């Protein structure tokens, strides 16, 4: 009976000592979870109004949720009387170890986040990056997938994409096609220019503004090289490139203008 009274007294003393702390911890937990839900709701609305990519929003919401819950757990543990100093140190050490082990992956993740936030390129745009030219097919959190003109799938880590040079051919809505067509030195340059301008002006894929142009680019060994510069929508770049080249050749040959090929003058000396 004495033992029972002893244990009952112990329970009573612990209830008096820890009861208010546990009750306060429960209240803090309930209120804290409610506040976290309110914060996450506000964050979702803020992300929807911002320029942050939709594919990045769920990850950021999840990351924010876990961070807030960990902070709430540490606060509650401290209120109950649990020493949190060592716990925080363990979390910090674990985070450092994971960061060192996954530094390449984390760099790609950070690069993906920067790309999705600042949008140097978007899905469907024609870009050149890391020595590759292609249309962006997908931007994931770790890699960017491109499709080359010859239908090859190119997968590039986002760490390299965010730290390297990116040439975006689509962003301005137009692109210049650079062609060089050579004519012989005895051909009429003015006539050749008129013919090539007519070819470009007659192509409905070539933009009127900026206007196309033809100019002498180089006096080469065997030809006068004309720079042919039509502008077009990036989506029809190759149609304009090949179409202008083919139609230009046919038109200037029809007008009697010669497209030369490399040649050499050989002088024979009769040595006696």
Key features of this structure:
SH3 type barrels, 3-stranded antiparallel β-sheet, alpha+beta, Helix Hairpins
Bin the helical content.
40-55%
The parts where pLDDT drops under 50 for at least 5 residues are none
Rg estimate, integer Å: 35 Å
Q: Could you say how many structural domains there are in total?
A: 3
* Number of discrete helical segments: 7
Topology-level CATH name of the largest domain: Helix Hairpins
How many distinct beta strands? 10
CATH class type of the largest domain:
Mainly Alpha
What fraction of the residues are assigned to beta strands by DSSP?
15-25%
Q: What is the global morphology?
A: elongated
Strand order of the largest sheet: 4-3-2-1-5
Please, could you describe this protein's structure?
Helix 6 crosses helix 7. The chain has helices spanning 2-49, 57-80, 85-101, 103-118, 158-163, 189-201, 237-254, and strands at 126-129, 132-139, 143-147, 153-157, 166-168, 175-176, 179-183, 213-219, 224-229, 231-232. The mean pLDDT is 81. Strand 1 (126-129) and strand 2 (132-139) form a beta hairpin. The strands form 3 sheets. A 5-stranded antiparallel sheet has the order 4-3-2-1-5. The longest helix is centred in the N-terminal third of the chain and has 48 residues, at 2-49. It has 7 helices and 10 strands. The chain has 272 residues and is an alpha+beta fold. The chain has 3 domains: 2-101, Helix Hairpins (Orthogonal Bundle), CATH 1.10.287.1260; 120-168, SH3 type barrels; 175-254, 2-Layer Sandwich (Alpha-Beta Plaits), CATH 3.30.70. The radius of gyration is 35 Å and the shape is elongated. 52% of the residues lie in helices and 17% in strands.
């Amino acid at each position: 009976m004495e033992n029972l009274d002893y244990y009952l007294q112990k329970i009573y003393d612990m209830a008096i000592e820890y009861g208010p702390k546990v009750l306060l911890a429960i209240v803090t937990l309930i209120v804290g979870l409610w506040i976290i839900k309110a914060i996450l709701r506000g964050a979702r609305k803020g992300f929807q109004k911002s320029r942050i990519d939709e594919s990045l929003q769920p990850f950021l919401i999840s990351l924010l949720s876990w961070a807030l819950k960990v902070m709430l757990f540490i606060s509650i543990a401290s209120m109950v009387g649990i020493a949190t100093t060592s716990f925080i140190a363990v979390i910090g050490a674990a985070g450092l170890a994971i960061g060192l082990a996954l530094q390449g992956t984390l760099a790609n993740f950070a690069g993906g986040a920067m790309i999705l936030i600042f949008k140097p390129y978007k899905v469907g745009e024609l870009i050149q990056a890391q020595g590759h030219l292609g249309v962006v097919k997908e931007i994931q959190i770790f890699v960017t997938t491109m499709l080359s003109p010859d239908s090859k799938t190119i997968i590039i880590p986002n760490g390299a994409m965010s730290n390297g040079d990116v040439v975006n051919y689509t962003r301005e809505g137009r692109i210049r096609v650079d062609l060089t067509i050579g004519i012989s030195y005895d051909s009429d340059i003015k006539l050749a220019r008129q013919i090539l301008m007519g070819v470009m002006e007659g192509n409905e894929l070539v933009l009127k503004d900026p206007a196309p142009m033809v100019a002498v680019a180089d006096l080469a060994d065997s030809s006068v090289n004309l720079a042919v510069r039509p502008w077009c929508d990036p989506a029809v770049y190759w149609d304009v490139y090949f179409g202008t080249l083919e139609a230009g050749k046919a038109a200037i040959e029809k007008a009697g203008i010669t497209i030369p090929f490399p040649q050499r003058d050989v002088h024979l000396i009769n040595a006696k």
